[in-house]
Amino acid sequence: MNSRFNTVRMRYIYICGASAVLSAVLLFVAYQIMRLVYRLMYQEAAWFTHMVHWCINHIGKKPLLLLVAGGLFTLFFWIRSQKIAEDMGILVRATHELASGRIPASIGVLSSGELRQLSEQINTVAALMANRGSSSTKGESEERRC
Questions:
Q1: Is the pTM higher than 0.85?
Q2: Which of 58, 106, 107, 133 is 20 to 30 A from 40 in CA distance terms?
Q3: Rounded to an integer, what distance in angstroms lies between the CA atom of residue 120 and that of residue 126?
């Protein structure tokens, strides 16, 4: 994939669009199933009929659909963006260790693109710090021998 389209911003735009499409499709299917159930169970389940009438009369059909669609969108967005959030958390912990003067363990992220480049650069900095730390330790041990 081209690096211009393999960015965190484009991934969030993709996740947003995919979540909107998933919630719209699931809402359409649920609406059609509810219509079918309402027609088939009109007299057998009075509680269901009363609940549907109450929701339509007190809340309204469109506000209820918008509320359910918003909830589904939020749920799908949260689930689908979890991988990027975990990768960002790993990178934050590694940079915090570097800022504290500790050398972090080699980090790897599941995402590609910008986050993978950032993890590779942090690993390079950690390796340079480890090499510099081991060479300065060698120099101190050689000075103590003399």
A1: no
A2: 58
A3: 10
Please choose, from the candidates 119, 100, 97, 118, the residue with its C-alpha nearest in 3D space to the C-alpha of residue 108.
119
**DSSP secondary structure string, 34-74?**
HHHHHHHTTTT-HHHHHHHHHHHHHT-HHHHHHHHHHHHHH
SS3 44: coil
Q: Is the pLDDT confidence value at 13 over 90?
A: yes
Q: What angle do CA 55, 56, 57 make, to 5 degrees?
A: 95
Q: Is the pLDDT of residue 42 over 70?
A: no
Confirm if 119 and 129 have CB atoms less than 8 A apart: no
The residue to which tokens 């269901």 are assigned: 48
Using DSSP's 3-state secondary structure scheme, residue 7 falls into coil
What's the CA gap between 112 and 59, in Å, rounded? 45
